[in-house]
Amino acid sequence: MTYAIEISDLKKRYDSGFEALKGIDLKVEKGDFFALLGPNGAGKSTTIGILCSLVNKTSGKVSIFGTDIDKDFAKAKKYLGVVPQEFNFNVFETVFNVVVTQAGFYGISRSLAEERAEKYLKQLDLWDKRNDQSRMLSGGMKRRLMIARALIHEPEVLILDEPTAGVDIELRRSMWEFIKKLNEQGTTIILTTHYLEEAEQLCRNIAIINAGQIVENTSVKALLKTLNQETFILDLDTSLPNGWALPGFSVLVSKDASTIEVEVIKGQSINAIFQALDAISVNVVSMRNKSNRLEELFVKLIKG
Amino acid sequence: MKNSEIWVAFYTILVREIRRFTRIWPQTLLPPAITMTLYFAIFGNLIGDRIGEMGGFSYMQYIVPGLIMMSVITNSYSNVSSSFFSAKFQHSVQELLVSPTPNWVILMGYTLGGVARGLCVGLIVTVLSLFFTHLALESLFLTILVVCLTAIMFSLGGFVNAIYARSFDDVSIVPTFILTPLTYLGGVFYSIDLLPDFWQSVSLLNPVLYMVNAFRYGILGVSDINVYWALVIVCVFIVVLFGFGLRLLNQGKGIRS
């Protein structure tokens, strides 16, 4: 089977002696929506840097759509579109030129480049800004410009390194809708993010990297199944009576007794909580997880 | 990449480079025009009249080829060094690095961008010089050949400088402390025949001397050195600098971690 990305025993030691990657193995299937998570300095950006040739690997093998980067990096690069964490376009170029120039670097003719630039700038709501210098754009627009630029050669794999960092909620949502559509059309998406709820909602598979090693590589569903305990917050319509207790559960009651935090261990039924509250005629107004489920697992895995 | 794609990539880099220096023409094209006009007016007209003839020509006619060459050298060098270093500085060089464009195409694109600016400034200075003196043209072919080879050589030098540069200071150090002295001592304003034997021998170690004199020969038909020897030296420098620049790019020196 040919994978979109196949990495084996990848190592990177910087000149300073810092070992950023200690021999990682990773496979990303074609059409996947894949999350690469890890704390700062874990090796995410180094891995992405090696994939797109911004970082020289020390050893190991990397294939992109079956093409070994050591044998034909030029071909491998054509499969990839990269949206880096930091803005890296010429800020004095116009929005249109940033995108069309990038197409030229892939050998795409000017007429086709202009056609595609119009298509992607319109899809990303930047068409009105096409003649503006890119430095004049807002932060969110700059991010969208980098997405348009990464798509100009219509890559099979789109790598997004912290694409929503510092982006407001509305824009983040519209950006994810756009990326989801791309994925549905067959583009393999690889993303790194600090917003774990994004990874939980969007991604099918996940790898967690820590200190240069992959500590988990599975489907999001399978990973969430390993969660042993969750904490729910319940908002109640009236205050609880003094001394109220919920047998079998660890409960924390707020000062005004109208909000409770209940720890639910794997195998316990949430129904028991509702039955107990119903017995004293207290209704639940709303219910939510105290923290993102993936976040809890992430912290657990990172702490080892 | 197919040949047609390589051509598109090369053309894209070249057009972007030309667009860059024409967009900021008050910084790139205007200053040499003003500086050289002052040189022509002060050194050529005011002081030159008192100096008299040099090499059988008026002093103004004698220094014009050197001043044109000085403009070409400075501008082709600084175009590439500043453009490539700026791309490194604002990380926009990554646009090229992630693309399949071969390194030799990147090097040629930037080099030809520098040549374009060098020739553009050279042409402006030549036209300005015609307001001050008459220029004969001994050999059009040699003149164009020398100016193109010199622009290529110094563009490549600027590229190597930009690869090693870590700050904007590093970009200006070489032009200020190496290029300018070499140019001023490279026979722009005088014939080395005027120098004592020892300093004549020292001057022969200066590569700029060969380019200035070969260019002067192309225009006026006089030179302090053998023109063919000058062409060989420039070609050797081009081959060495191209090979070195390409090696640095392949290694990712200063641009890849």
Automatic annotation (TrEMBL), chain A:
GO molecular function, one term: ATP hydrolysis activity
Keyword Coiled coil attached: no
The entry's keywords: ATP-binding, Nucleotide-binding, Transport
Membrane spanning stretches: none
Domain ABC transporter: 5-236
Signal among keywords: no
InterPro entries: AAA+_ATPase, ABC_transporter-like_ATP-bd, ABC_transporter-like_CS, ABC_transporter_ATP-binding, P-loop_NTPase
Name the UniProt record assigns to this protein: ABC-2 type transport system ATP-binding protein
Organism: Marinomonas polaris DSM 16579
Automatic annotation (TrEMBL), chain B:
One Pfam family cited in the UniProt record for this chain: ABC2_membrane
Lineage: superkingdom: Bacteria
UniProt entry keywords in alphabetical sequence: Cell membrane, Membrane, Transmembrane, Transmembrane helix, Transport
Protein name per Swiss-Prot or TrEMBL: Transport permease protein
Transmembrane segments: 29-47, 59-78, 104-133, 140-165, 171-192, 204-222, 228-249
Species of provenance: Marinomonas polaris DSM 16579
Compartments where found: Cell inner membrane; Membrane
Chief place of localization: membrane
Membrane topology: Multi-pass membrane protein
Family: Belongs to the ABC-2 integral membrane protein family.
Gene Ontology cellular component list: ATP-binding cassette (ABC) transporter complex
Molecular function as annotated in GO: ABC-type transporter activity
Domain ABC transmembrane type-2: 23-252
Keyword Methyltransferase: no
Transport keyword on record: yes
Chain segments annotated as coiled-coil in the UniProt record: none
